[in-house]
Amino acid sequence: MGVDWRKLRKVYVEGGNIPKPTKINKEGFPAYTIDRKLEIINLLMTGSTGNKFYVSGIQQVYDLIDTLNSYNDNDFIAKAILYSRLKGYMRDMPILGLALLSVRDIALFKRLAPIVCRTPTDWVKLIDICRSGIIRRGLGRAVKKAILMGISNIDIYQAMKYPDAVRTMIRLARPKETVNPSVIKYIMEHRYDVDDRTEALLRLKKTNNPSLAYELIIEYGLPYEVVTSIPNIIKYTETWRALLRVAPYMNLLRNLSTFYRKGVFSYDEDIEYAKNKLTNEVYIRNSKVLPFRYVSAYMSVNRYPEFPEELKSSIDYSAVKCLGNIDKLNEDVYVALDDSGSMNSYVTSENSKVKLYMIARTIAWVLLNRAFVTTLSLFGMTVRHNKSERLIQKERLMDFVLSEPPRGGTSLSAPIEELLSENIRYDRLIFITDNEEWVGDPVIKPLREYISRYPDTNVYFLTLTPYRDYPTPDMKNVYYVFGWSDCILRYITSDEYKQLEEVESIELP
Asked: Strand 428-433 and strand 329-338: pairing?
């Protein structure tokens, strides 16, 4: 895309001493670049292989590859990969970074591989990237050795849970049976080193008795993925009732609509069980579920008019509790929520149920319930309307999140121009946006004026997408928060360099 000089003129001709932009964003509007290390963290913490409104998934892959290849410090890249995987709970981008590390520093790759690839499906993701030709020309000896190490660490129950992924690992790495004999025999020869649990699984495969199936699943905690692959018993509601009882928290949340379709919630005791588990604060705290999973779960069940209302309410309640342990912001806070058309893009791909505006509204709702005094501004090309915290707190989260979808263009400057015109000061200005402004004045112009007038105000841009189009250069009291994982809100009270310090403090294995 060529530079739109009419837009650029507003910044460094009409804007006086405002720094000249170093690039343009996806809409031809002026933008800036930041420190290379911060770019690496940004992409690893927010990137996705799914399509976005402006950037295709494959373009994000190439963005990460180009950014990593432009930086020579392999130790820092390795630390950023670990940070993204272990602290940000990201998956695709750390594995992509790991594949790139395999051609740059094989020793580091070997040390990181078993940490980044935590399940057989992670290993298959690495295999797919290596075989795609984007980074390397195939697996090679070093990657196969790493896969062998991964195979040696798989237990029989992971093999039951991910049989296709483990089979792919075995066929490509060709391990000797001595590497992990019980897993290899199970996957390749359908033979078992029988213990009580595998004996229960064998009995389950042979029975057509729903009561026996229920007892075996409950007593031995047989995993969802294995049980649902056995055709002779998945036709029974009793099987699904048992699976509800042994379901880990994430499994329960993801499969609420499945349990409903299988007739599980025709039983009052099962509704009560699911409700109690969904709302259990220990499970919520320990599950590490992204809060936006609740929005996705709610959407998946909301299409069924007869779905139990108490379970819908439980999802709503749990979504708030998931972020309710953050510290309160005892300050005057102004939240500017991007409600423009680009926020209609899907988080990962068009198969996802969650869109960016749903994420943004979830974060905004939580902020409005955790800050001291808060105003929410919905903006597109202009500020549409403001809502006080009292109004928002009376709304159910899902009602707020799933209200009228966003529309129109993005003017990041509109909220600040309104604050300037009304001479209103806040302790914090928090923008929740994809940062793709393309109408109105560039935000740097009114932002500089606002900070000049109120030098103690801190401004945060919660960037929900991996577009590296920063609308300002480095400015005092202006911070960028990268990503939208469970970690996102803790950075509102920090800055991007604090995140960088955390990455650099990681000790490599």
From this structure: parallel
